[in-house]
Amino acid sequence: MEAKILQVRWAAVPSQPSPSTSSTLSKIPTAFSITPPLKTKNALGAAALQRSKKIEEQDLYGLPKEYYDDEWQAKQREKTKELHRRRQEEDEEEERKVDEYREIGFRLKDYPEEELRKAKKLVSSFIKSAEEVEEKIEEAAEKGELNELILLVIWNRLDLARRDDEKDAIRSLDLLYRRVETEILKKEATPAMRLLNDLLNMHYGFDDDGWLKACKKRMIDTFPREDPFSILVPAGFDINKHQGPMRPDLEADDVLLRVEFVREVDALLREVRSEQSDTQNMQGLDPESVASRLKQQEKQRAIHQVEALLDLAINLKW
Known about the structure:
With 318 residues, the chain is mainly α. It contains 13 helices and no strands. The protein has helices at residues 2-12, 19-26, 41-59, 70-106, 113-129, 133-143, 148-163, 167-188, 191-201, 208-222, 228-232, 258-278, 287-314.
């Protein structure tokens, strides 16, 4: 009986699936379907590279085409190195200037603050006086205000102007320095050198004969007479009344003998000539060479004038 039931059940199952059965199987959820095989490592790396390339292209969007050129990038790197080098040179130059300015400022640190303040104030008054600078300098010399500190303050300003390449300031401060230095040297000079300076300053224009005549008159008025009669009977002695000084006052500060003048001027000329022989004239048409030649010509002209004054003093007759 049981065998018959089993046969009936097996007979009920069809040997081939019917169309309705296929449609029923197709409706089974995909969770029970078989999954495809996993991708290899090479496939994953290629996909990642492709994604990164797309991202990079998106980031570089809008940049010039030269950015993709390796040669252009190499040139840009060289330019960057050059900019860094120039910046470093500028920084080093700035540090050097700061050190130089600091060194210039330290030149005055050993002087008293009050004297330094007065010196700077006096130099500022010279600079502001313009055409009246000569009167200002002479007035300061008479008051005894010109000294080494004044020259140092002017030199510091001149040094700063040279480092900053301020040509007008360099020219003005150089002239001021020379004028103040001349006034100080005149104050410290001997009577012979002061007379020589005055005689040279009497030369105006090209009238050498008129200048020598004026110098001769000045020498006669300055030097004591050296003839025998003046030695036996000095100036101011009344031979009839036998009254007056018996000998000239040679110990006075303003008395200058002709022989002293001749000796000092001759020594000065020998020193200047030795310096001239050591100096070589600069050849060329550049500004520095032309300026050097002009200075040499001016110096040579002054030497000729001093030589003429020396001859005049040697052959002076009353």
